[in-house]
Amino acid sequence: MDDISNKLLKLLPYWHFNVERRIKQKNDLNITYESYYCLLGLTKVNSLTMKEIATDFYFGKQQTTRIINQLLEHGFVE
């Protein structure tokens, strides 16, 4: 467990610099971290079903629906 904790702690600067900071800089997007994370992942594939998104990103069904609706509302996904 300590090994996992140490690896996660090493990822925090990467997360802050490459994800959290980008979201804060683009504050006009007005989307959540989860939505941004999902959007980044979706840029690497052609398409996914809602079930695949929920499974691949470890989201619940309701959370996936909320995230995709938010991305649709902003025109980031079709």
Protein model, in words:
69% of the residues lie in helices and 0% in strands. The chain has helices spanning 2-25, 33-42, 50-56, 61-73. Helix 2 crosses helix 4 (61-73) and helix 3 crosses helix 4 (61-73).
Strand segment count:
0
User: Total helix count?
Assistant: 4
Q: What value does the average pLDDT take?
A: 82
Helix content: 55-70%
Overall outline: globular
Q: Give the ordered list of helices and strands.
A: HHHH
Low-pLDDT segments? none
- How far the N terminus sits from the C terminus, by CA atoms, comes to 40 Å
Described by strand count, sense and barrel closure, the largest sheet is:
none
| Rounded radius of gyration (Å) | 14 Å
The amount of beta strand, in percent, is: under 5%
Structural class call reads mainly alpha
Could you give a short description of this structure?
The protein has four helices and no strands.
Task: Name its key features.
single chain; 78 residues; mainly alpha; 4 helices; globular
Secondary-structure topology with pairs:
Layout: H1 2-25, H2 33-42, H3 50-56, H4 61-73
